[in-house]
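Entry 14. Structure prediction run on the chain below.
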Amino acid sequence: MERNNYTVIVTIMIFLFVFVIRIPYINNSPAEQGDFWRQSDTEAIARNFIEDRFNIFYPQFNYDGPKPNYVQLEFQITTFLIALLYKTFGYHYYLARLVPIMFFLGSSIFIYLIAKTYYSKPTAWFSVIAYAIMPMNIFYSRAIMPESAALFFFTGAFYYFIKWYREEKLSYLYLSAIFTCLSISQKTPTIFIGLAMIFMLIKKYGLKFLAKGELWSFFFISLVPNILYLIWSRNMAEFDFVTNIGLLHIMPKSLKAFTSLSTYKLSAIEIVSAVSVGLAIPAVIAIINAKWEEDYPILFWTLSMFLEIIAVAAVIKLKYYFIFITPIVAIWAGKTFGKLCDNNKAIISVFVGLLILALTNYKSCNSFFVEKNSVLKQAEVIQRYTDKDDLIIIGTMEPTLLNQSRRSGWRANIKYYKDIPIGAEKEINYLIEKGAKYFSPFGGYIYGDDGSYSKYLDENFEKLGEGDYFIYKLR
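Output returned:
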């Protein structure tokens, strides 16, 4: 077999592998153990596009209150694509999961191209495999969430930037600007990639880069649309639970995080958990053995996203905010594996080792794929006894019951909104006046209840259902 044919076949097989290992559980509902709140919200937004307002600029939740509940979130690329598929082929969860899977495949292509640009083809192969089999990516690459889209634009932004950096074709610079803009529109912390770009510009041009008009164009293309969307979405939003979440919950704590030893400890634990020990070790080996002239672009990229981890991910403490380190760790690990295969004799051994690691990492994710059957059963009860337009109160902080039952309403006893009175009787009567018709606890559970909430409901309202799966009829 000719060498060119061999490399093409190997490359195709690797990308088929990346896709195939994401097929199991593809028809799972959003109510998985892994981030069921975020997944159910995302899927509900896609449905609401179809059923209420088919406009990408008007995403809405099913809570808190009657529709519309327009919300300030990332630019809705993933949900709008899901809505288009739903509208064409019907409501099927596998369609919703195909969207992030395809975005992840796209980011895998960029990983391959970046690694091949600076290193060897085997390094590119191993980088893609490492990227695909990381525990975090095994789950989140097919989760109904915007993370895969963010990874696609994030890796694309860096790839087209290094293409411009090496060849100085303006088309690559403007492509990078567009990808950077879209990356930030999906996940604001990806803005840290700009630090890597600035470091590279300083190395190449010194401070003279500030006089280049095309770089100012890059700056405006990357940021201005996102600023305009932020202003628009803040003014459009009727639901304020997540409005300005970054300003309120992240930025005030970011500077302090850099001086806290616990931040670095948490970051190290989360990074290793995200990528696995089997890939963290070869990545560290590659970083230790890095050569400045050969590796400085990846070193700058690594530094910029490590700063993102300290300033954002370790502050907000949501696992999926650590995902933007995975492409970088994959390339470093791929470099170590590629070095092992310089004589071509170790390639098969490395492939086999990675296959074993893939099985181990997949097994470590099994609990995340388990659906919460109790949520699905309670959602069925809500659907059985209520009409589509009925407003429901649920007894959980997470809104999954509303999303899975395709209903709108409120979350009880969360004590968040100033206009909603505190206390079972006052809150229930207030929400009845606002249109609430049913109350759904979850296995008898009501968030923050000391027993008085359940007692009031039991004494004053009829139960519909049986056993642990029931709802109260409020009127």
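Residues 3-30+71-368 form one domain.
Filed with the rest of this week's runs.
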